[in-house]
Amino acid sequence: MSLSLLAFPLLSWLLVLYLCMLVLAISVMPRRMRKIGTLGDGFTFPLVIRACAYMGSFILGKTIHGHVLEMGFQSHLHVGNELIGMYAKLGRMRDARHLFDRMSVRSYISWNTMVSAYAFNYDCNGALEIFQRMESEGMEPNLVTWTSLISSYARSGWHEEAMELFGLMRMKGVEVSGEALAVVISICADLGAFVRAKIIHEYAVKGGFEEYSFVKSALICVYGKHGDVNGAWNLFLEMKNKSLASWNALITSHAEAGLCDEALEIFSQLERSGDCPRLRPNVVSWSAIIDGFASKGREKEALELFRRMQHAKILANAVTISTVLSLCAELAALHLGREIHGHVVRAVMVNNILVGNGLVNMYAKCGCLKEGHMIFEKTERKDLISWNSMITGYGMHGLGMNALETFDQMIKLGFKPDGVTFVAVLSSCSHSGLVHEGRRLFDQMLKKYRIEPQMEHYACMVDLLGRAGLLREASEIVKNMPVAPNACVWGALLNSCRMHNNTEIAEETASHLFNLSHRETTGTYMLLSNIYAASGRWEDSARVRTSAKTKGLKKNPGQSWIKVEKNVYTFSAGNNMQRGFEQIFEILEELTFQMEREGTVHDTDITPQAVYQETRLTMRV
């Protein structure tokens, strides 16, 4: 039977018409082969497999794999390597690993493909495992292997470890390549190590690597990230033949420097100069500009750009999906998040760890913790970010014990917590009133896990103790900190004073905040005013607000919103002229009455009386 009949019985003509020119190449070639009685071989199969990976078609790829088995090419080394690469690019690492483990003979390409596969899927643990296994089986890792391993660490955010690997590679006498230098320069950009990057730049010049397009592109990124956009522009203009990678680097450098509008202008220039197909914006171009706007808090514009990307028929990759999922999480845009999830399933990206972590975070922040937990459980190879996301999700929903159980499970599985983990678990304890557990974990940070508590960890402890009414203990922690407390720590203590109407500690804390802040904000004034109001000291409350007004400080009203039948309703603090305000106030009174009856009211700011006094004071000021 010919390859044509084997490969395409399930494809409809409509799908064939829709697919790109590569599919046409795949479909036309076998028909010609059939006429001359030729079957697929070790040359044609790899080409077809590579095309499936390029198109992102798992179904077609699986079909081709089936024909490989039927025709007895499962032991063909070149075919096996291409199948591993295809499954990796489709995010099917379990299939890729299964194939690799079953190979009777492996070449350097096999090993390097597997390390690169894990790197591509942001799994540095898997990459290191294959690297070490390669050494144990007597295969000396070559330059490609080292570069792939370093890249996997860089893509996973393990930058210092990646730099250590680069140093080890040089100690072992492995020759440095332009690709390796480009990876290391990119790491320097992420670390903000501009001095180190300039040293590597000099090394690249001496070694004759500077004119390599990918090295120059990495240098453009590092100069841009350092804020030297003029230096980035000069490097770009020096290039005789500007590649798409160099355009993308210039866009990224401006976006990461916070110059979103300038980045968009460069992106538009790229669109206008796209006479050559190779110089049209690709998924990297779109991802860079979307991430730039997202990082500057311009979420709606970022989402509009994502829609433009979809209309341009550019398929999103894992990085783009992760960025958009973060936007959905910040905006609580559950409907769009579910839409993205559907795209992930259709594109067979559910096993991509970056996407999986983004989905867990999105569902947790959108209030759908059950769905987030299901995705977490289905994630095949979890990393530390996966665990941190799940712990954070439990904490946000007040499920402190679940967060602690997840933390313990993570430790038992051999994961080492980091500073982010402890922020997540301490915050979970704080929101669930788990004082004893929070104290224990804070004490273990340095003693057991060798993690020096940072400012955010002290803020979590102050919040934990303050919420529990242990204001004196919280105050002592602040006074005994090894570094000077910042506004975040003092703010946590002041907020606790508000919750428990402690004017004595509040006044002392507010004075520290006033002295600390070079640029005064309304937050401290409003908190202190509310504390006075809750204690019945209305004149002091009005005096503090008047002081804020005299200094020209203006409070930005808090907002909340809810989506009902595709309509978004926004509520602003202090705006009592909104439609249905009287009914809302009546429901608030009823809920407060029920909470008081059950003894669950701790925050006096939510009572109707507090709302009324807040409104009255706002009008006076």
Give structural notes.
By secondary structure, the chain is mostly helical. It has a domain of 50 residues. It is built from 35 helices and 2 strands. The protein has a two-stranded antiparallel sheet. The N and C termini lie far apart (86 Å). The N terminus and C terminus are likely disordered.
As residue ranges, the low-confidence spans are: 1-31, 611-621
> How would you characterize the largest beta sheet?
2 strands, antiparallel
Globally, the shape reads globular
Round the Cα radius of gyration to an integer and report it.
29 Å
Instruction: Please state the structural category.
Output: mainly alpha
DSSP strand tally: 2
- Main sheet: which strands, in order across? 1-2
Helix content: over 70%
Share of β-strand residues:
under 5%
Nearest-integer average pLDDT: 80
**With helices defined by DSSP (H or I, 4 residues minimum), what is the helix count?**
35
From the N-terminal CA to the C-terminal CA, the straight-line distance is 86 Å
